[in-house]
Design a protein that fits this description.
CATH superfamily of the largest domain: Ribonuclease H-like superfamily/Ribonuclease H
Order of helices and strands: HHHHHHEEEEEHEEEHEH
Distance between the termini: 86 Å
CATH architecture of the largest domain: 2-Layer Sandwich
CATH topology of the largest domain: Nucleotidyltransferase, domain 5
Helix content: 25-40%
Strand content: 5-15%
Number of domains: 3
Largest sheet: 5 strands, mixed
């Protein structure tokens, strides 16, 4: 029986309705059937178990003898049962299979060996039967990573100058209708961070040396050291100890008693002052 019909039958039974009244209202069976419908009987059994103890052939007046439901007694509220405190279960961490070999693994890590080599030695020399991933995780926990260190260099006024080429803004080439991005030469003093900037369309050995002379005129004097990239206009063969400088550039530096200090390849931090100056340069319109 559908839920709404069950609710109707329960309401009629509580009101003392007869069998035929329930059949007529619910339309569950024909009124000529003297037997109580099975669905109504199940509702009677669930709602009024004392009345529904007989067979299916219950008299029509039986429903009228059902006593009305009594109002609920004013009972005291039951004392709530205290809920027992749940103590969280503490699980001991499972020890790694590499724990017995901790001393050996630490010694190998100090030698800067990787996890693959340590795993192979554990299997060959110590009879290790665990997995490689266990060794890898254990080694990562033991490996001590020191933070990257940077030395702060101090310079006297006019002692060092850093030079570099950057990319200028899109500009129309003089005398033509073409637009290009010229090269931006920037020279920055290490102490004061004062910069000299100049835009050139073509670069060569002579142009590179002349730009240094213009920067020194702008600053009012030359410096002692020049830090530069390993570009061909300045350095022919990069080398930390004895770099081979371009002859024209080397002659210009010797004339002003300046020493070139080419930076290490892919090490822009050595000339961070001029790198920042290039990034801060804005075109004028």
């Amino acid at each position: 029986m559908k839920p709404h019909l069950q609710t109707t039958v329960w309401t009629l039974l509580e009101a003392g309705a007869s069998q035929r009244d329930i059949q007529r209202v619910t339309g569950d069976r024909s009124q000529d059937d003297p037997r109580l419908p099975e669905a109504v009987r199940r509702c009677r059994c669930s709602k009024f178990p004392r009345v529904a103890t007989g067979s299916l052939g219950v008299a029509a007046g039986a429903a009228e003898q059902i006593p009305p439901p009594r109002p609920p007694a004013q009972a005291q509220a039951p004392t709530p049962t205290p809920t027992p405190a749940v103590t969280p279960t503490t699980f001991a961490p499972t020890a790694s299979a590499c724990e017995p070999h901790r001393a050996f693994i630490e010694a190998q890590l100090r030698l800067r060996r990787n996890a693959v080599a340590i795993y192979q030695d554990l299997v060959d020399l110590h009879g290790y039967a665990g997995a490689y991933n266990s060794v890898k995780r254990f080694a990562n926990k033991l490996r001590h990573r020191e933070p990257e260190q940077f030395d702060r260099l101090a310079f006297l006024p006019g002692e060092e100058m850093q030079v570099d080429y950057g990319e200028g803004a899109l500009t129309r080439v003089p005398g033509t209708d073409r637009w290009r991005k010229p090269r931006l030469f920037v020279a920055t003093l290490r102490y004061s961070r004062r910069s000299y900037r100049c835009v050139v369309w073509r670069s060569s050995q002579e142009t590179w040396a002349r730009l240094h002379e213009q920067a020194w005129r702008y600053f009012g004097g030359s410096c002692r050291y020049v830090v530069l990239d390993n570009l061909k206009e300045g350095v022919l063969k990069p080398d930390l100890a004895e770099p081979e400088l371009n002859p024209v550039y080397a002659a210009a530096l010797a004339h002003y008693s300046v020493v070139a200090d080419p930076a290490r390849v892919r090490d822009p931090n050595r000339k961070g002052s001029v790198e920042n100056a290039i990034g801060h340069t804005r075109p004028r319109h």
